[in-house]
Structures are given as C-alpha cells and as structure tokens.
Design a protein that fits this description.
This protein is an alpha+beta fold. The chain has 2 domains: 192 residues, no CATH class; 145 residues, no CATH class.
Length: 414
C-alpha cells in the first residue's frame, strides 16, 4: 500500500512541476559537472590516464613519422640545387642509377643551368672508443665546390678532388665528439677484408641524414678509394673512371624548375630530371614507410575514440538514477546534456595535456640515435584531433542521459 502511494505521487510529480519547470543555469551546470569530478577523483583520473596513454602513443607515432621521414629525405631536401638527374632506366632509384662525368659535362651545357655536381652514395662506419658499437654513416662523394656539397657552419669546404679530407654533418659531430682539424677514421670493406682510412675534418655542415644515417662528404676520387669494393683497385696518377649515382642541378632561374626539367630531359639522352620532392619521395622505402605510419596514427585515433566513448558510456550508465532524480525535480535535458559535455571535455582535456607533457618528458631522455622529431604542425594537428575525439566519443553517453525517464531511472515504472 505504501509503495503504491509513492508510485502514484511520483507519477503525478512531472505534471505538478510542468508549469514551473526548473532551469539550471550554465554556471550551475558547470559547477555540478566539476563537483562530480572532484568527488570521484579516482574514477575520472583513470579515464584521464587512458586518454593520456592514447595521447602518448599518437604523439610518438607522429614524432616517429617525421623523424624517419627526415632521416630519409634530409640531405636531398636541403640540396643547394633545384633538380636531381637520374639514369633514365633506374626508375628514380638512387642505388641503381649510374652516370659518368661525361653526362655531367653535357648537363652543364644546357641553357639555363648554372652549375651541376655529381653525387655518389655508399655506406661505411666509424669505429668508436670504449667498446661502443661502430657508428654507421652515409659516405657521400661530391665534386668540390659544386652542387651536392653542403654549406658548412664551421671550417671550410672541400678543396681538392684527391684530398684525404672530409666535411662531416652535425649528427656525426654530435655522436663522435669530433671537431674541425681532427682526424676521422672510417672502416670500409675491400674484398673480404676490412680497411681503415684516415680523413682530416675540414668542415662541419648542418644535419644531412641520408637513409636514416648521418653523413660525411668527401671528394669523389677519395670516395672511390674509400667506398666498399669487391676487389682492391690500384690508384694511378690519372683520374679513375668514377661512376656516380645522380647529378644535382642548380638553375639560373629557381622558379622555372618544372620547365627546365623538360628541357634537360630533351637535351641530354638517357637521363631523367625531377624536382627535389619527387626525388626524396622515391627514396627506397620512404613512401611505404610514411603511409604505414600514417595509417597507424589514424587507427590509433579511432581506437581512442571507441575506448574513450566506452568509458564515458559506462560511467554514465552508473548514474542514471541520479539523472532521473534531476529530471523528476524539473531539470531540463539541455542543462543535463551541457553539464555532461563540460565533464567530458574537462576530463579529456586534462588527459591530453597530461599525455603531451609525459610525451615530451620521455622524449628528452631518448638517445639521439632514436629517429624521433616533433614538428609544430604535426603535434598541433594530433592534439586537436585528440581534443575532438573525446566529446565525439562521449555523444553516445549524452544520448543515454537524454533518454533517461525519471520513473524508470528510479525503478518505479510499472
């Protein structure tokens, strides 16, 4: 009898207050949302921690994408030239492209070309003291004073095509502690034997990674002597017939690169000229690597959307009774929805900020060999996406609040 009386009173309650419906103001809605977060710190901190871990993963993938991409394209992207010329049958692959100095001379005769430098690539290592693993580097042979040789920050550039000297990039200088005037020892392979070569450092250039390795630059004849070879070759007084991989072309008019590439292709046989972006995008593995990491980043955001949405939905289902009471006393659905949005945004924002600080803190402790690089635009886009997926994931929980019936929420519906 008592229960029936209570049910009848509750059923008539909405009709009694319909004419004087309670409207909770925005400041009160915000206060209720933040008050609940404070009273249930452990539960909401757990949700924020999940958001922080997702943020950590997304930002590290973004940093790794940029770091690996930079490691593959840095040297080509910063060339003091506008075009890169390949052998036409190489399919824009640097390792398989071959050209001679005769081709370089033909390229210099094309009208509109200011300078041409031949560039050759190989790999050697630098023995490090203290039993440390050797540092693997890219050995790049260039024509002294021509495009392809980097601009130095310290010291001077290469002076002679036969000199046993080198310009090292900032990555090599940082990892070895070497400076201008020191002697750099590189380890190469000739036949089945290891050979050591001493090169005097004459200059230090900005970071010029190629194939995710720091680089050293040597004159092209020195490069031909130092590079790994299947058999030993005897050095004579005459210049050896060195085979290069590509040529770097600097133009008189830098804005006319597209038209000049067509002119060069028509003027010189068996070559193909492309701009710098096309060149580094065709670096072996570059495009596949970038697309794979990009997909990983997108899927991580989608997983974060589902996880955050699931957490907020479970948290909302646990307080349906309280929402029923608020609706029973006349609180509007709009006020309840706004309060929930404030709560979701606050918890998600705290998790994103905490995750970003955690990411940058961990990045400071990573060794320089780890190819991770944080760029403002990539970080900003990732953080904006993370701030958006929280409220989007919480829409399902808001829908539950809006559909909550006072009687059913209180367990009094027949």
């Amino acid at each position: 009898m008592v229960t029936d009386t209570i049910q009848n009173q509750v059923r008539t309650l909405p009709r009694n207050i319909k004419k004087r419906r309670v409207q909770i103001g925005l400041p009160v809605s915000i206060h209720l949302a933040l008050k609940e977060i404070w009273r249930n710190k452990g539960r909401f901190f757990l949700i924020s921690s999940v958001v922080a871990l997702i943020t950590l993963l997304v930002l590290f993938i973004a940093g790794l994408t940029e770091g690996l991409g930079q490691g593959n394209r840095e040297y080509i992207e910063n060339l003091n030239a506008q075009l890169v010329v390949y052998q036409d049958k190489a399919d824009l692959s640097i390792p398989t492209s071959r050209m001679s100095l005769a081709t370089v001379r033909q390229l210099r005769q094309v009208e509109g070309v200011e300078a041409v430098g031949a560039v050759a690539f190989s790999n050697v290592s630098i023995p490090l003291p203290g039993g440390k693993p050797p540092l693997k580097i890219s050995l790049i042979g260039v024509l002294p004073g021509e495009p392809g040789e980097p601009v130095v920050n310290q010291g001077q550039g290469l002076r002679s095509k036969r000199a046993d000297e080198t310009v090292i990039d900032a990555g090599v200088a940082q990892r070895t502690g070497l400076k201008v005037g020191d002697v750099l020892t590189v380890r190469s392979t000739v036949g089945s034997k290891e050979q050591l070569y001493d090169l005097r450092i004459v200059g230090i250039a900005p970071s010029s990674q190629y194939f995710i390795a720091p680089s050293i630059f040597v004159p092209y004849i020195t490069w031909d002597k130092v590079r790994p070879q299947p058999l030993a070759t005897s050095q004579t007084g005459e210049d050896p017939d060195v085979s290069f991989n590509v040529a770097a072309v600097r133009l008189n008019n830098t804005a006319d690169a597209k038209a000049m590439s067509k002119t060069i292709n028509n003027s010189v046989k068996e070559i193909i000229a492309v701009d710098l972006q096309t060149a580094y995008e065709n670096t072996p593995g570059y495009s596949a690597q970038q697309s794979t990491l990009g997909l990983m980043r997108i899927f991580t955001l989608l997983i974060g959307l589902l996880v955050i949405g699931g957490f907020f939905r479970i948290q909302t289902m646990q307080k349906v009774a309280q929402i029923g009471v608020l609706k029973a006393i006349g609180t509007s659905s709009a006020s309840i929805a706004f309060s929930s949005i404030v709560q979701i945004f606050s918890v998600n924002s705290f998790g994103v900020v905490f995750g970003a600080l955690l990411t940058f803190g961990l990045a400071l402790g990573l060794p320089s060999a780890v190819p991770i690089r944080f760029v403002g635009s990539a970080i900003a886009s990732s953080l904006i996406a993370l701030l958006v997926i929280g409220p989007i994931g919480g829409l399902a929980s808001i829908q539950v609040l809006l559909k909550a019936e006072p009687l059913r929420a209180l367990g009094l519906a027949s």
